[in-house]
Structure formats: structure tokens, C-alpha cells
Amino acid sequence: MKLRMLTAFALAVGVVAGGAAYGQQQPPAAAPDLNAIPDKMPFNLPFGTPISYEKAMAVIQAAIAEANKRGWPEDFAVVDPGGNLVAFARMDGAQLASISIAEHKARTAARYRRPTLVFENAVQKLGLNYILSLDDVIASRGGIPLVADGKIIGAVGCSGGTGSQDEALCKAAIEAAGK
Predict the structure, then answer these.
(1) What's the pLDDT at 13?
(2) How far is the C-alpha of 18 from the C-alpha of 113, rounded, in Å?
(3) Which of 50, 80, 152, 173 is the most buried (most CB within 10 A)?
(4) Using the 8-state DSSP alphabet, how is residue 131 labeled?
(5) Residue 151 belongs to domain spanning
(6) What is the model's pLDDT at position 15?
(7) Contact 100, 112 (CB under 8 A)
(8) Does residue 2 lie within any of the structural domains?
(9) What CATH number did the domain enclosing 100 receive?
């Protein structure tokens, strides 16, 4: 009987403490007015000629070089503007679940013409959970469109680390391959 009373008391203390901690959390940033009508279409870059296999491989090789420098085994995907896979690489030791995630990040960035960080921020910072109901969206950074001459030629997706690691590799790959 004493054990039950002690357990009940511990549970009650945990609930009260948990509720107090929950009440101290900061509210999410104010969501934008979804009824506002922008003057210009956001993320309205036109689609261009799809990235070549050679250029896609240069992006991946640049990503691998940066990942090797940092000791981060990752998966890398490059897609064309329609989200179709052009090139892929998985480093030794990269997690297997990240194969499809890298492709998904690249596909989302290409088709929606914006970095996947935009979707992550919309859900995490603005509380716009309806974003998760859009077809083929992944709300996780690490997918960035590839732009040439002001047109989207594809996208790169990196996965295997934290979102910030994935995004850093994408950015480094784009910068190095663009030179």
C-alpha cells in the first residue's frame, strides 16, 4: 500500500512539474496573415534545361569532398527540375534511411523551387502545419535548388547528419561546383 501511495505521489509531482515546464515554453512566432495577397509570386524562378549528368556528378563530388573534410558520412542526390534522379552517391558508413531522404529533399527543392529550409521554418517557427499536407513535401533542411542563368536546372539533397550539417554540405557543394 505504501508503494502505491509513493508511486501516486511521485506521479503527481511529475505531472505538476511537467505542466509548469510546459507553461514556460515560448510561443511560436506569429504566423503570417494567410489572407494577404503578395504583389509578386514568391519563388517564381523559371525552370531551365535540366542539369547534365557531368554537372550533377561535379556537385556530388564537391559534396563528398566537403563531407570527407568534416568526417560526416552522408548520402547525396541530384535531380532535374521535375525531381527525377540524375545522380546519387552514398558514402561508406552513411545511414541507409538517408538514401530516400536525400532524394526527397532534392525532389522537393526542385519541384517547389525553394530550399527545404523554407518548409522547415514554416512548420517549426511559424506553426504552419498545413505545409505537411502538401504533396511530396519534406520539411527538413538539406535540399537546395540548383540555379543557372536565373533558371532552376535541378536540385541537390543531402542527408545523413543533422539538418544544419546536411544544409552546410549542400551549400558547399553548390559553391565548389559552380567555380
Answers:
(1) 44
(2) 41
(3) 173
(4) G
(5) 53-178
(6) 44
(7) no
(8) no
(9) 3.30.450.150
- φ, ψ for residue 43, nearest 5 deg: 55, 45
pLDDT < 70 positions in the chain: 1-31, 179
Locate 127 and state its grid cell.
Answer: 506553426
Residue 6 is predicted with a pLDDT of 44
How many C-beta atoms surround the C-beta of residue 126 within 10 A?
Answer: 14
Non-local (6+) Cβ contacts of 13 within 8 A are none
CB 45 within 8 A of CB 152: yes
C-alpha cell at 67: 563531407
Whether residue 46 lies inside any domain: the answer is: no
91, 73 Cβ separation under 8 angstroms: yes
Phi-psi region of 154 (alpha: psi -120 to 50; beta: other; left: phi over 0): left
**Distances in whole angstroms, Cα of residue 173 to Cα of each of 155, 158, 176:** 11, 10, 5
Question: Coil, helix or strand for 76?
Answer: strand
pTM: 0.81
Q: Where are the alpha helices (DSSP H) in the chain?
A: 2-23, 53-70, 98-112, 116-124, 163-178
Q: Locate 9 and state its grid cell.
A: 505521489
- Give residue-wise pLDDT tens across range 28-40: 566 678 788 989 9
